[in-house]
Specification:
By secondary structure, this protein is of the alpha+beta class. The protein has 5 helices and 11 strands. Helices cover 27% and strands 35% of the residues.
């Protein structure tokens, strides 16, 4: 599943102002494999599989990382759907604070489970749900692409309805600039040092159903 739209890269780039490339340094300074919790997968192989499916998004994530950082991966489950989160960690640990800081590089589907991946719709009433269903039936490819785009950012989708202009904007709201912390050097986040800020981006527009 290759997402090659310019919109995807521009939205994804906003969420990863800091990221990583290259091999990580271990706790004693030696070069190691990419670290993390990858379940039944080998982490470097899993990253390669994700790059085959999402070449632009993974390349963009890697390009944002300096030589003094490394990639951590974490496979986890939410609402019966598995996801892979990527993070970029500083090679140097803050020994005074007792943790290593990093930033999120986004979320990706587990290979073979793409159909269950994507952002949910923040509808609070039946009318919104009916409008989403109508748009999904009328513009299935475009709506699915928006769900994937926002899903890569770990965001939520909203409908912004303009009766005056007779249109509906598709809004993705996600958190950017979050500072993650890793206390045990396993490449998996153990919490946040800063929650960052919420960002909203209009992914596209449709005529009002």
């Amino acid at each position: 599943m290759n997402l090659k739209t310019q919109g995807l890269l521009s939205v994804f780039g906003m969420a990863i102002a800091s990221a990583c490339v290259g091999l990580p340094l271990g706790a004693r300074g030696e070069v190691t494999a990419i670290v993390g919790n990858c379940g039944e997968f080998d982490c470097p192989e899993l990253l390669n599989e994700l790059q085959e499916s999402f070449p632009e998004a993974i390349a963009e994530a890697k390009s944002q990382c300096s030589d003094h950082q490394f990639i951590g991966m974490n496979l986890w489950e939410q609402n019966d759907s598995r996801r892979v989160s990527l993070a970029c960690w500083n090679a140097e640990r803050d020994n005074t604070a007792g943790y290593r800081e990093g930033v999120s590089l986004g979320l990706f589907p587990v290979p073979g489970e793409e159909d269950s991946f994507g952002s949910s719709w923040g509808c609070g009433d039946r009318l919104c749900e009916e409008q989403v269903n109508t748009l999904q039936e009328t513009y299935p490819e475009e709506m699915r692409n928006h769900e994937l785009q926002c899903g890569l950012l770990g965001g939520e989708l909203n409908l912004l309805v303009s009766e005056a202009e007779q249109k509906v904007d598709i809004q993705c709201v996600f958190s950017a600039g979050v500072i993650l912390v890793d206390t045990d050097d396993d490449g998996v986040s153990d919490g946040e040092n800063s929650r960052g800020t919420f960002v909203d981006n209009i992914l596209g527009s449709f005529p009002l159903p």
